[in-house]
Amino acid sequence: MIGGSTVRVGTASWTDPTLLTAGWYPAGVSTAEARLRYYSHHFPIVEADASFYAIPTPEVAQRWVKRTADSFRFNVKAFAPLTGHRVPASRLPASVRDSLPPRTQKLPTLGPADLSADDIVELRRCFSAAIAPLVEFNRLGTVLFQYSSDFRPGFSSYAAIEKLRVDFPVTPLAIEFRHREWAAPEIWARTLDQLRALEISFVAVDAPARFASAMPPVDGVTTPGLAILRLHGRNSAAWEGRHDTAATRFQYRYSERELGDDVLPRIIRLAREASEIHVLFNNCFGTDGVHNAATIRRLIDAVG
Prior knowledge:
Layout (H helix, E strand, L loop, with lengths): L5 E6 L5 H4 L11 H11 L2 E4 L1 H4 L4 H9 L6 E5 L16 H4 L4 H4 L11 H20 L3 E7 L8 H13 L5 E4 L8 H14 L1 E7 L20 E5 L4 H4 L6 H4 L6 H16 L4 E6 L6 H16 L1
Helix pairs in contact: 4-7, 8-9, 12-13
C-alpha cells in the first residue's frame, strides 16, 4: 500500500526457461502446478504472456484459478494478431486455421491483413472464451494490448483503439504503446483523453532511452481504478537486436539505486490518482525480474 492505494508487484512471466533453470524455484518445484503455487506465494500478480503467442483453452485459466488464492490477479496479454503482430498459422485456433485458403496457410507468418473480418471476429471470440474463467472468479486484472512500434499516432490507430472498447465492451483493458511519437505533447494529450473516455488504462513503461521504438518515462492515469507500470530493463545494446528468445532482449537487472531514485517516485505519483497500481517487471531473464520485484516491494513497504 501507498497511502490508500493498493500496489501489486510481480513479473511478466513465471515460466520463462531462463527462470526455470536459474535456481529460484526450489528443488521439487518442477511441475506447472507447483511453480504457479510457489510464485503466487511470493507475489500477488503475474502477467500471463503465453496468450500473446497462442490463445489458451479455457481449461488453462480454470487451472490457474484453482492453483492460486482468491486475491491473486492475472494480467493477460492479448493474442498477437489482435495487436497487429504476426504468428505462424500453427498458432491460430483450429477454427480459424482450418478455414484459411491453402495459399494463406503456407505463409511463414500471418498478420491481421492476411485474415478475413470473420477470422478476426473468431479470434476475439476464442480469446474472450479463454479468459472467461478469470472474469468469472474475479481473477482478471486487465487484458494488455501491447502494440508494436509500427502502431503510430494517426486516424487508423485512434479508430483501432476506439474499436477495442466496441469489441470488448465490459472487459478491463490496458494499452502499451511502443513508439515514442505517442508521447509528443499534443498527441499525448489527445490520447489520454481518448483512453479516459473509453475507460482503458494507459501503461507507463521503463525502457532504454533514446529509441524511437520505446516510450519515454511518461506517466498517465486514465482509469482511476488502475494504473500500470511495466519495466523492460535498460539494455540498450539488446533493445533493437535480433534474439532467439524474448528474455535476452530484456536481460537487465535494475540496481537498488535505480529502483529507489527512478521507479519508486513514479509509483508514488501514480498512487495519488489510482486506487490500484500494477508494477510488472518484464526483465524476465533468469532471476532478474523476481529479484527486482522483491526489491521494489521492500522499498514500497518502507514508504507505505
